[in-house]
Design a protein that fits this description.
alpha/beta, Spore Coat Polysaccharide Biosynthesis Protein SpsA, Chain A, 8-stranded mixed beta sheet, two-stranded antiparallel ribbon, 7 helices, binds guanosine-5'-triphosphate, metal ion binding
């Protein structure tokens, strides 16, 4: 199993710092995501902007799996998470990959394995929560996903879910999520307040 961590956003809701490397109880967010994935995955691709690379490489320096950096293509830089997904998926030679945002520190490795099972013989496995897809917490077959992403971007569609309608995707509904994912697996930390709240929860455990 292989994973792509998308980290090229500007973290505008977070404030001045890059949330990818913001510390949650002493560990940078992207390192927490990577550590959660270290069981199931054999390799990691990190998609980010060129300016982020050195700092992210520093926090992942001793990661126990190979890490490849996929920088946003110059003609797609700042074009949003779908372009980041494309850059990341292009850099993997895996047939399928789990794509995840950099700000979900409690991503559940058992659920990631379940998503790979659900994606077998399909072009994707995508969780749906409250009726909305979670394209940055999903497994994709790389080749069809790249085709769909390129077509969406060429058509001016930049949202992370813009490639989904072109894919034969297995929809992972709430009941299956409840059974297979730990509570908090999807919690994403977009603001400093959300990070502080997560830190409080960790301390109270
Ligand atoms: N490569 C790349 N990744 C992006 C881009 N925009 C968002 N992302 C990533 O997509 C994921 C989800 O995006 P958001 O949670 O909205 O992150 P963000 O855009 O940095 O945050 P805000 O500016 O507060 O919306 C995060 O892991 C981001 O790093 C982009 O333009 N390029």
């Amino acid at each position: 199993m292989h994973a792509v961590v998308v980290a090229g956003g500007r973290s505008t809701r977070f404030g001045e710092r890059d949330k990818a490397v913001a510390s949650l109880a002493g560990t940078p967010l992207i390192r927490r995501v990577a550590d959660r994935l270290a069981g199931p995955v054999e390799s990691l691709v990190v998609n980010c902007r060129p300016a982020q690379r050195a700092v992210i490489a520093d926090v992942l320096a001793d990661y126990p799996r190979p890490v490849t950096y996929a920088l946003d293509a110059p003609d797609r830089a700042g074009e949003g998470p779908l372009a980041g997904m494309g850059a990341g998926l292009r850099a993997t030679d895996a047939e399928r990959a789990f794509v995840v945002a950099c700000d979900v520190p409690f991503v559940d490795p058992a659920f990631v394995r379940y998503l790979f099972d659900r994606a077998a013989a399909r072009e994707a496995a995508v969780p749906y929560r409250e009726g909305y897809p979670e394209p940055l917490h999903a497994v994709y077959e790389v080749e069809p996903a790249l085709d769909a992403i390129e077509r969406a971007l060429d058509g001016g569609r930049r949202r992370a879910d813009a490639a989904l309608d072109a894919l034969d995707a297995s929809a992972v509904r709430e009941a299956a999520i409840g059974t297979h994912a730990a509570p908090g697996a999807f919690t994403n930390l977009n603001t400093r307040a959300a990070l502080d709240a997560a830190e409080d929860r960790l301390r109270r455990r």
